[in-house]
Specification:
Distance between the termini: 113 Å
Structural class: mainly beta
Order of helices and strands: EEEEEEEEEEEEHEEEEEEEEEE
Oligomer: single chain
Number of helices: 1
Shape: rod-shaped
């Protein structure tokens, strides 16, 4: 701005300026008080910063500053006449979406319709995600997380806020257990991941995406056909009835025992170990029946005990 003062009688005049409640030097405002005869002028220059908007980091995007400018002249007997104006300058910050930093979560799948990243972890396993915030101009960024209605510490989730020049990254790690599964509620947790440009007003060009994490039961693969014959002849080949790849234990369905019976229903073998072995010793050749019992599942079938004679 260019401010001018004029006295019609060409008297000695002085033009001064001040801020209401602040000093020019506090805000890096350049304005020089001037004196002269008849007409004076002075340049007002201010390149405001986002930090000069109070509470900008909490979402406020404007602030108004008040200035006083006074011009006075001196006549006979040192009687001074003066004129004054008030100037109100309003700083306005407008975030530009195009300049917003972006968030990417490696290890999760992005759903563009919901602006959400989805990740799934089976109970008992560990979920590890790499979260990256970046912008094109390599500004100073802050990356943080807000959980929605649950305690991350209680669930064993770990996440650290991160700040630095773009790109900035941090990790989300969740070491899960079967005890976290809840049959009465949806085991889905929603988290806000936020990145904002610290140097550009704090609210400047922020990006927020949702991270939706679902805890699921372990997936049990389809059961292949179990062995149905063995020959206990001590030749080192198929001497035992055993199942090397039993169905996996689940949080709610664990191996309990195996029971083998003869054709009359008599129990000839019983074991509570997953790595069981039946050698068939002292039992005649023939057909036997097994029942593999899990908490909620049973696998039944027959076994042919074959004795090979030379």
């Amino acid at each position: 701005l260019n401010l001018e003062g004029l006295d019609q009688e060409a008297d000695s005049i002085r033009l001064v300026g001040s801020g209401v409640g602040f000093d020019f030097t506090d805000l890096n405002i350049f304005f020089g008080d001037v004196s002269g005869f008849g007409m004076v002028s002075s340049r007002f220059f201010w390149k405001p910063l986002c930090s000069q908007i109070p509470e900008v980091e909490n979402g406020r995007n404007s602030a108004t500053y008040e200035f006083d400018f006074i011009i006075a002249d001196y006549k006979e007997c040192n009687v001074s006449d003066s004129d004054s104006i008030k100037l109100f300058l309003t700083l306005i910050y407008e975030a530009t979406i195009a300049d917003a930093p972006n968030i990417n979560i490696e290890g999760a799948v992005f759903n563009s319709e919901e602006n959400c990243f989805d990740a799934t972890v089976e109970a008992g396993n560990t979920l590890s995600l790499n979260i990256i915030g970046e912008d094109e101009v390599k500004d100073l960024l802050n990356l943080r997380m807000n959980e929605r209605g649950f305690d991350t510490d209680a669930l064993g989730m770990t996440f650290s806020d991160a700040s630095g020049l773009s790109p900035v990254n941090t990790s989300f790690v969740w070491e899960t257990s079967c005890g976290l599964l809840n049959d009465t509620t949806d085991n889905t947790y929603l988290i806000d991941i936020i990145v904002n440009n610290i140097a550009d007003c704090g609210i400047a060009s922020a990006d927020t995406v949702k991270l939706r994490v679902q805890l699921t039961e372990i997936t049990r693969e389809a059961v292949e056909n179990f062995p149905n014959a063995f020959s206990p002849d001590n030749n080192g080949v198929n001497d035992f009835f055993e199942i090397l790849q039993l169905p996996a234990d689940l949080c709610s369905d664990n191996f309990e025992f195996i029971e083998v019976t003869n054709r009359w229903g008599d129990v000839v073998f019983f074991d509570e170990r997953r790595d069981f072995r039946w050698d068939g010793v002292n039992h005649p050749e023939g057909v036997y029946y097994y029942n593999i019992k899990y908490t909620n599942t049973e696998y039944k079938g027959l076994i042919n005990l074959i004795r090979i004679t030379e």
